[in-house]
Amino acid sequence: xxxxxxxxxxxxxxxxxxxxxxxxxxxxxxxxxxxxxxxxxxxxxxxxxxxxxxxxxxxxxxxxxxxxxxxxxxxxxxxxxxxxxxxxxxxxxxxxxxxxxxxxxxxxxxxxxxxxxxxxxxxxxxxxxxxxxxxxxxxxxxxxxxxxxxxxxxxxxxxxxxxxxxxxxxxxxxxxxxxxxxxxxxxxxxxxxxxxxxxxxx
Length: 202
What we know:
By secondary structure, this protein is an alpha/beta fold.
């Protein structure tokens, strides 16, 4: 993989590791913009993703793996990863994922995107929040588009607003819902919506 990125002048390889613990150490010492990891790496990879998300939130984690299951993608994203790409994909998709997460968005390999978002909705039904957070009509529209795995640009086109405005709403949603990324916004918003409905019926 290092050879793949070495061919491009706009990427610098901070290092390579062969275990989950070593990945944590590398991130905490080198502070890379992006960490690309494999679920087959020795050690607790999901645990490492969670620790990196908490201790080095500016480092975006992409999972590049042969573990082709929606469950693996859900677990990785729930742990704190912001990208999930299958090794059987074209090299261009990995570069697309890197470009996407660098802008603050989440990338899910296209063949799993809809299933992963559906899985997140199911997971939300098993969780609860202590208090409902009031979202504006526009914020709810943004969340609705998120749940269809649309990018900021696509959301802007559907809602007929600027991409800059979409980013503004996304930042607001992350703050309101205490979310670190777009996936967590979708998860938290769904839980919040269920709580609002529950409160309204009481």
